[in-house]
Protein 1
Amino acid sequence: MVGAASLVALSLALPHPEVADLPYLVTIAVALLAAGVLFVVLGRRIPLSASQAALAAVTALTGLLIYESGVAAGQYGAIFVWAMLIAAYYFPRRVAVAHLAWLLLVYALVLAEVDSTAGYSALTRWIFSAVSLSVVTILTSEIVARRAQADLRARRFFELSHDMLCTANVDGYFVELNSAWRCLGYSHEELRARPFIELVHPDERERTEAEAAALFEGVETVGFENRYLAKDGSWHWLRWSSTLASDERLIYARATDITELKRVEAEREDLLFEVKMLAASDALTGLPNRRMLDERLPNEMARARRSDEPLCLAVIDIDRFKDYNDAHGHLAGDVILRRCAMAWDSELRGEDTIVRFGGEEFLVILPDCTLEQASDIVERLRAVTPDGQTCSAGLACWDFAESAEDLLERADAALYAAKDNGRDRLVSSAG
């Protein structure tokens, strides 16, 4: 209607038939302008039926304008074209056809009454107008119908997706969300009611805000993960991909709920850790086994070299263990091994490591220990040997030059020296 008023004003500014009633035309133009401004201000709050009635009224008023001008020609016909464009674009097809029929009826009545039809017969001008307006209506309706079908297909894909699809504005609020977001337990209205950053886990908010800042600078989000609060108080891990449509000032995003995947990954990590520990542990005593020794001893040697601190290695062997096994059986021997392992492990410092080396032999790594200090520790171990058993031990202090194999060989040689000298004793090798 604002456009119609503008066209009327233009007609008044340009030369027009002298027979026209100028005050009447001005009154109609002002009325059209006022109605148009009212529609612009109220916007979507005006019911669709009221908009349809207003457009029909514009058609009738345009007929009056033509009648008052006395000539069925000129820019007033453009109002008819705009009226049909609006009807075909915004209203359902059957309503647009009804508007076309109403417009052609009004125009037929006007043509029957005006003084001049600008050189054409009234019927010819009506037929020309009917054809052109019908074409405008059909083409516009077809374009709108195709667009509506495309929007419907997009909406179906949007709703059918198992991914959590959404758009968000630059102020940080959700705009559109598909049904997959129900996994969080909220309604769409609840999700749109507050900034989405409030749903993010406190530990991930800083990272999320940094990712959003990068998105606004043109860097697309790919594979970003954070936790979102569900309505029941649980946390869901979401993996995001998003892009910014700067022309629309909208963020288009896709999130996948990977909570179950995270749980499975955590279980797998725990299982792998358990398998690794089992592979590096002795099944009978629970102590680290020789495989762990191959990793731990070189690491302790490297640390000792860096810190320039002494490192000692002891090998302990339960005396006459084979005889005990033969006399009491292997199950009883296993009990002795477990008890020795527990007793000796409890006497060591936190930084020390005891390893079951094989059979009845145990190896003890003693970092940051002089030979004298290490001797005191080994003697304590021998003193707590359970069930009246005795043990022999060989002790070697690393010279910072020999290999792990050479160090172990010296400690083993010291052990055999202890056995050769009557067992139940400690023999040390300074290196």
Protein 2
Amino acid sequence: MQTPGQVVIFNEMVHDVRIVRMNSKHAPSSVRKWLGDSIGWWEGDTLVVETTNFTDKTRFRGSSENMKVTERFTRVEPNALLYQFTIEDPATWTRPWSAEYTWAASSEPPYEYACHEANYAMQGIMKGARILEADAAAGGAQNENK
């Protein structure tokens, strides 16, 4: 979602929302956020997002709270975005590192992310499903003798 002063990025997993303040400056380093402090600007057709000010609890592959992430979002086809990122954190890595991949557009609604922690019924559901599958594979003969 985009407004004149912000871009909002909705993450399907855990339903995190990042608010990117456009053409702004980072908050003071004393202001730390779980998802960091994101500012953005346009370089031609590419949205550039720089994120700093992570908390000391935001760990990405051993990173420190001083990690900086620079992302680039470029539409490369009518239904595709090229996503590129560079991660810098001298306390963790000897040099910045980058990756990229293409995101295909989807007309599907976001997936409902839900945690099954402490859902003890799931074990019984899955066990029952495996019994039914085995029964079907054996032609229904397994449960006739029980």
Protein 3
Amino acid sequence: MDVGFIGLGMMGKAMARNLAKAGHRVRAWNRSKVAGIEGVEIVGVPSQAFDADATFTMLSDDKAVREVVLDSGVLADARPGVVHIGSSTISVACAEQLTAAHREAGVAYVSAPVFGRPDAAEAAKLNVVAAGDAVAIEKVKPLLETIGQRVWPMGETPKSANAAKIGGNMMLGMAVGAMAEGAALAKANGLDPKAFFELMLSTLFAGSPIYAIYAPKILSGDFEPGFKLRLALKDIGLAVAAAGDKAERLRLLQAIREEMEGVAAAGMAESDLSAVSAWVGRP
């Protein structure tokens, strides 16, 4: 297939490379200059990426998506029959705007955010959450299966996939915060946090990929980013917005937001999400 790709950050670059490896013709555009990617043609304007059978967008936030997709006029000039696959983590409100704009432009839209860190993207082991028109999803399913290990259908309303992604990232933030606090409690009582995590990963949380990924980072203080805290905090903000008038009742959500804001204010916004343990464990 002719595949367009917009957004070549750590995740997008790996996804585009895997699509090219699978034999698809991939033309990609990025808002800033990027190094060449084997098998991927870098184009000069975003409209060239919409001259395709299917086009992915993997952009950082609502603002970037609105600028590139809604404000640039690319939908009006898109190739007839193209399916736009929105893989960015965006707000429910932005997803609704995109759905309406695509309907007006006559362009098929599938919301397909992904779960997984950059190493999972490199290994084509992402979990893809897809919602939208069933015919459009079926058309692009081979592409989604190329970048991921499983496609999780969430119905025909695109924003449902975004709600699932936001809810999942909210729970991820809470889980990492809980791990950080568990380690702090252990240390405060003279228990080696490593021994504590070995116990947890072998009993209550055995088989949990989140605990397996983040426990070593918390123990080592290695905050080299995979999922930047700045982006995790953005997603927590999306969760607050999605919760609407129920947000004040979501006390865990409010607590992890406060912790992440403290870490960001301390200058660690570009560090990994696991840096919340530095905030919890501060003197």
Protein 4
Amino acid sequence: MITEGVTPSLHVDYKHSRIKQYHKQNRALRTETTINDTRDFGVGKRLHNLPALREIGFTANRRLIDVQRTSADCHIGQQAFDQVCAPVVINHQRAAALRFGDPRVQALLSVLVVFRLLPTGFSNRDLRTHLAPLLGLDPSTMTAGRMTYDLRRLRLHQIIQRIPHTNRYQVTPFGLQVAIFFSRAYSRLFRAGLSEICDPTAINTPLRRHFDRLAQAITAHVDQLNLAA
């Protein structure tokens, strides 16, 4: 809730640690990380560990700010769009396309946005648990093998990368940009826009009026050329 006269703030909690973000004296955005228990990150409490804690804090701040910057400007170029929407071959490994508008692809990319800030990444089970409800399925009905196929597709398209020596994955900066762009373009532009244009029961919105005028102009032009059926 944003209320006039009240400075909004953002709080991100992880175990005993927290990131707080707010406007400092209404002049600049301030991002600060507080680590209350060094064991949350596998670091000791002695003074010589301070440089490592500083790096953890700065990294957390940068990750949050990078996500916010990408969220504010998530557009991708034609080359990147075509790269994702076409099959790829990496080191003799082929991965199917991640086609825009495909229900499973859209659900996969929507889930990845949730995982971007997790410091330890996500697993096959994590993905399955979050993906199933978006597809109207029970997580128990989704096999680990099918998730492995999806993870392989995402990895070869450079949307995610495996964390070394683990079975966990992280969303790449490029992957986050693609995930946000695909999710927003599909849900806000295509689904909402096409419902206004194509649904006969849609209310008289500005977009619907413009498309009606376009249809009338095309029909009139065809009539003038005597091309009507």
